[in-house]
Amino acid sequence: MRRAAFIAAIGAALVAVGGGTGAPLPIDRPAPEAAIFYYAWYGTPDVDGEWMHWGQGQHAPPQEIGSNYYPTRGPYSSGVSSVVRAQMREIAATGIGTVIVSWWGPGSVEDSRLLPVAAAARAAGLDVALHVEPWAGRTPAGVARALPAIFDLGIRDVYVYDSGHDLDEDWRAALADLVSLAGLRVFAHTSLPGKALRGGFQGLYTYDVLVYDGRSFGRMCASARQLGLACAPSVGPGFDAYRATGEARIRNRSDGRWYDHMWQAAVRANPDVVTITSYNEWHEGTQIEPARKAKGPYQTYDGAWGLRGPRAQRAYLDRTTYWVDRLRGVTPTAEPVSRTRVGAAKSQ
Fold first, then answer.
1. How many Å apart are CA 225 and CA 232, to the nearest integer?
2. What is the predicted pLDDT for the residue at 177?
3. Residue 152 — very low, low, confident or very high, per pLDDT cuts 50/70/90?
4. If 210 and its partner were Cys, which of 35, 82, 83, 239 is the partner (CB 3.0–4.6 Å)?
5. Does 344 have pLDDT greater than 70?
6. Which CATH homologous superfamily contains domain 2-22+33-331?
7. What is the pLDDT of residues 66-76, one digit of tens each?
8. For residues 131-158, b (16+ Cβ closer than 10 Å) or e, as one string?
9. pLDDT over 70 at 78, yes or no
10. What φ, ψ does residue 180 adopt, rounded to 5°?
11. pLDDT by residue (tens digit) across 19-68?
12. What is the rounded CA–CA span in Å between residue 232 and residue 159?
């Protein structure tokens, strides 16, 4: 009780000096949401004139790609409307409500694709949020100037990756007028609610499933509620970026047990949003988009929840449906796997 009172007092003091933007969240909060990070940066020669992103790590698509997994669709272009529409239908079918689109600022390839991706998402019944990436020269003031251009898309949730790169006071000054005028909910990329509050953000998220293992989610969300912030912990199936970047650390998927572990931690934290890392970040091996067996050193989802072959290709999408139901208080049709010890981050 003394800890809660202390946190509440800090929150009140920070709000009084301009570090926050409102009162604590009401007791009767809306049902928690599920949102997923989505990347529209892929390209192919026949559509885009060159391979985009699939060759990361000096690989030669389509046989060799910058991922330890191979998409069931093969290396695709995010500029093909039929591909994007199918992806949005897949996401919506899990019960996820929002797709968080990676955005690298005005004039970027991802900027040019934002409108069609948003249209496909809306057609599938999804809301659209923005993942503001750290483009060259990005500043808090520059982000605040750029965001009004996307308001017509109906985007009201914005997630700022690597927000800690800039000073809290710079974010607070940049976001103050923007948030009050547009009604935005801007999330800081941090696990520290006090830092998010000092920066004038309305929430926080963790994104990184290599660094954050779920153990801090309960404390993080409890502190966020005391400070009037929305809490959006990030869950993911694993991490393996070796082929794309040479990164030796991995987060083993453990046949789906790691995904279950992170979801259990997030649901117990009583979050406002569970953010999923990711639908299709193939470079870092966090994707839940279907993957298949392919010639070469590619991993598959075989073994996840006991599934193999074609059934395993959609294993993580199907498991997401289970956990979204749990998040919303719906009784799922199947129970999760037993709580055996899951794989931790380790070196290859």
1. 11
2. 81
3. confident
4. 239
5. no
6. Glycosidases (3.20.20.80)
7. 999 999 999 99
8. bbbebeebebeebbebbeebeebebbbb
9. yes
10. -70, -35
11. 344 334 444 668 899 999 999 999 999 999 999 999 999 999 999 999 99
12. 10
Residue type, position 293, single letter:
K
Cα(301)–Cα(255) distance, integer angstroms: 7
Residue 233 in tokens: 């912990």
Q: How far apart are CA 174 and CA 163, in angstroms?
A: 12
Copy the structure tokens of residue 276.
């999923």
Q: Kindly list the domain boundaries of the chain, sorted by start residue.
A: 2-22+33-331
- Rounded Cα–Cα distance for residues 240 and 234 (Å): 17
Distances (CA, A) of 91 to 34, 55, 260, 279, 324: 11, 25, 18, 8, 11
pLDDT at res. 348: 30
